[in-house]
Design a protein that fits this description.
Length: 256
């Protein structure tokens, strides 16, 4: 069974950036095979990884949920929805050399999604067994995890900005995770984009106050931002990028 790591945090804190670097780290140190799940409806992890996405789980879910109204390209009468899902699930898997990627995609629509989500759940659980790590990039609400589409988590990496209010927001997400009874065996806080990699004493005090398991700081790195603006995959950052060095040092401590 794969070791499952979910990356969570409020909007724009750097979840997707760090998820990409995490995947790159795991594959480089030989902790593979890795399955990466982009569980953000407004997904862009593929940009960070430099991968093209043609077909998402959302597309498949939509197709099955709306099958009864689809006259143009109906599911063949000889096929059950389960058969169709089994036949087409592989199309949602983007295979790279060192990892595979599944994009959950958007979720809204008029069809019956509970049914499809149940089908998906079973399929994903079967898949997970063939990987050593499953890495999930979440949206702040952790929708797929809270709905149980994805299996139980081993570690949550909470990403926060370096402000006191950012830490308070991370504490609320930590609370949400606890309320969902997800019971990850580890929940680590990482502060991202700290100027010069230094924590303000006020922020440090709040981290202490909230009782976080604090894993470390990733500095604000102009290269990360520059790569993003130029449309270059983050995982192509040079090895001496300050964000990359700091994050990998943290990972070497928290990931066994
Ligand atoms: N350490 C860093 N130094 C500089 N810029 C960073 C750093 N980490 C992330 N960024 C930049 O911050 C922005 C937000 O990052 P990212 O998209 O990873 O956040 P997110 O939490 O996934 O956002 P969303 O909630 O929208 O999914 C991006 O422009 C990214 O390039
Ligand atoms: Mg993101």
């Amino acid at each position: 069974m794969a070791y499952i790591i979910a990356v969570a945090g409020k909007g724009g804190t750097g979840k997707t950036t760090l998820t990409g670097l995490l995947v790159d780290y795991l594959t480089r140190v030989g902790k593979k095979p890795v399955l990466v799940v982009d569980a953000d409806a407004n997904s862009n992890l593929n940009e960070v990884l430099g991968v093209k996405v043609d077909y998402t789980l959302g597309d498949l879910r939509e197709k099955i949920a709306n099958a009864d109204f689809d006259t143009e390209d109906p599911i063949p009468a000889s096929m059950s929805k389960q058969d169709y899902l089994d036949a087409y699930f592989g199309r949602t898997l983007i295979e790279e050399d060192d990892y595979d990627l599944i994009v959950m995609g958007r979720t809204q629509g008029k069809g019956c999604y509970c049914f499809v989500n149940d089908l998906l759940q079973g399929r994903i659980r079967k898949y997970v067994d063939s990987y050593r790590y499953l890495i999930v990039d979440n949206e702040a609400g952790m929708e797929h995890i809270s709905r149980g589409t994805l299996p139980a988590i081993d570690m949550v990496i909470l990403v926060s900005d370096c402000s006191r209010r950012g830490i308070q927001a991370a504490a609320r997400i930590q609370e949400l995770v606890n309320e969902l009874a997800l019971k990850p065996s580890a929940m680590k806080l990482i502060v991202n984009r700290a100027p010069d990699g230094v924590l303000d004493p006020g922020t440090a005090e709040e981290i202490e106050f909230q009782g976080f398991d604090f894993a470390g700081i990733v500095p604000a790195d102009p290269l990360v931002y520059a790569f993003d603006c130029e449309g270059k995959p983050t995982i192509q950052l040079p090895v001496d990028s300050s964000a990359r060095i700091a994050f990998e040092e943290i990972l070497s401590r928290i990931i066994v």
